[in-house]
Amino acid sequence: MNNSFHKSIICLLCLLFLPLSALGADKSEVDGYIEFRGFSVDDDRRGRESGSLWHLRPTWKGKLGTGRFKITGDFNRRSGYVERSSGSDHSSELSRAYVEFNKGQWDLRAGKQAIHWGSAHIWNPTDPFPEIFVADPWAERQGVVAFRFDRLIDEFKDESLTIVALADDEVGRERRHVVKYSRLFGVTDFSFSAGYDDKVNTQWYGLDLRGEKVVGWWVEAVWREAPQPFDDWYEAVIGIDYSYDVKKGLLLALQYYRNTSDIFTPTTTNLGVGGAATVAGRNHMSFTATLTLDDDISPNLTILRSFDDDSMMIIPQVSWKLKGGRDELIFGSRFGVGDTGIYKPASAIDPFGITPERAYYVWLRRFF
To answer: Pick from 233, 286, 321, 350: CA 20 to 30 A from residue 296's CA?
Structure first.
């Protein structure tokens, strides 16, 4: 998406600010966070490099008549090694710019926003705009330009309807219209979704279930119509988690992901968008362990494995809340191990090391 479009979004938000003020918006406040992240990558193909990211997300909230509004922007600036781009070593981006209005049981949001559906970890088959970045597991979603309408039908049953229309993003998936119906049945969360893609004239239907019986469990699956000459295909995730009484809590989660698509293969996946190779394989497993030591410190370990090529990725992380949660300090790293494959690309597939073998992160986030 070009800079002129981003400028037009900013101008739109500025123009909206004046009418809202004139209409009597009161009791307004501004909050959000500013973040600095430094990272270093180490790869045999390109050596050791480093970079940084500045990230600002302000949100202006207020009351307008009997409803409430919210205007959110998100700006970031990368320098040095940019993992999610194979172009310049410097990049600026507007990844959020939307207006939201809420009144009673309905909510309307318009602009560039994050849309993320699904109960599973990492892989979400029912997500209309999936983003999986092996090269940067902690990257936030870039957002899509869309109109989103949410309607709460029954508060006690947690029953709701969501409609997203005229969605567009930066990698060519255009005009995806989707709808989702959600409801609580006993202790089980149920969601059914359906979508249509104008660009390739295809449709899909998804089901998402999450509940608890001795252990926590979830099942998320989608059937997708494929463009010719490819066959229709499905994605499915099944997972469980269990909490142990260790310190403030130890949560272990295990899940399996299956993809039957014949459109993507590991050798044709575009690693240049940040290593989205995880959508290419057929069979994946993930294991996650999170230990809450106290109210402030939580170490986490995630292991990803591809059963197609036996490659693995190990992602340790430590989160530390400071000043009563007003600041957050995070240390993280990731390593590609095992055989050459999706999580450890061979030089023939990724000759420039766009998905490096090792990466180390540290970032500080301050809320305001």
So the answer is: 286
Selection from 351, 350, 284 nearest residue 311 by Cα: 284
How far apart CA 50 and CA 45 sit, in angstroms, is: 15
pLDDT digits (tens, 9 = 90+) for 63-96: 887 889 899 988 888 887 654 444 456 778 788 8
Greater pLDDT, 45 or 100: 100
**278 — phi, psi (to 5°)?**
-65, -20
**Total length of the chain:** 368
> Could you count the other beta carbons within 10 Å of the beta carbon of residue 77?
13
**Confidence (pLDDT) at 16:** 53
Q: Read off the pLDDT band of 349 (50, 70, 90).
A: low
List pLDDT tens digits, range 259-315: 887 665 443 333 333 333 344 567 889 999 999 999 899 999 999 888 888 788 899
pLDDT of residue 201: 78
Q: Tell me phi and psi for residue 10, to 5 degrees.
A: -60, -45
Q: Are 127 and 25 in contact (CB under 8 A)?
A: no
pTM over 0.85: no
**Selection from 204, 208, 203, 205 nearest residue 182 by Cα:** 208
